Amino acid sequence: MSLITPDFGLLVWMTLIFGIVFFVLAKWGFPMITDSVQKRADRINESIAKAREAEEKLRNLASEQEALVEKARKEQATILKEAASSRDAMIEQAKVQARDEAAKILDQAKVQIAAEKESALRDVRKEVAVLSVAVAEKVLRKDLENDASRDELLGRLVEELSSSKDLNS
To answer: Looking at the domain assignment, is residue 61 inside a domain?
Structure first.
């Protein structure tokens, strides 16, 4: 029975040893344990705060990214509008140049046609004059075959010459 019911001396010694162990643990063990637990809690809290900061930075970066994307879209739209207006201006300028060039070519063609027409008219007049002289020559030869008509023509020519000299003087 002595195993189940301890003696009074054993109880005193067990209480005394428990008190010493408790005192040593309370003096040096528990503060170390609570310090390490506190340090760990501080590190965990610090990590949580850093995680929140990182999360906030990510949100800010996401909003900045959205703003940059929107700005890039606006710039793209502006550039596309400028390119379209530039293209339209270039097309209009090309049309104006083409019209001007066509007008110049048309004017040159008209001038050339007029010059060729004038040249053709001169050639036709020359031909008509040559033909008229040839016809007149043939008619005069036929008319001047007899002496009487020749004398009459010469008399008329002399009278015309003398009358024209009188007018000029």
So the answer is: yes
In the block, residue with structure tokens 């809690």: 41
For residues 149 and 143, is the Cβ–Cβ distance under 8 A?
yes
Give a yes or no: residue 158 inside a domain: no
In-domain check, residue 125: yes
- 21-57: burial string, b at 16+ Cβ within 10 Å, e else: eeeeeeeeeeeeeeeeeeeeeeeeeeeeeeeeeeeee
Which range of residues forms the domain containing residue 51?
8-132
Per-residue pLDDT of the chain (169 residues; tens, 9 = 90+): 566 777 888 889 999 999 999 999 999 988 999 999 999 999 999 999 999 999 999 999 999 999 999 999 999 999 999 999 999 999 999 999 999 999 999 999 999 999 999 999 999 989 888 888 888 877 777 777 777 777 777 788 788 878 877 776 6
Please report whether residue 165 resides in a domain. no
Those residues whose C-beta lies under 8 Å from the C-beta of residue 144, and which sit 6 or more positions away, are 150, 153
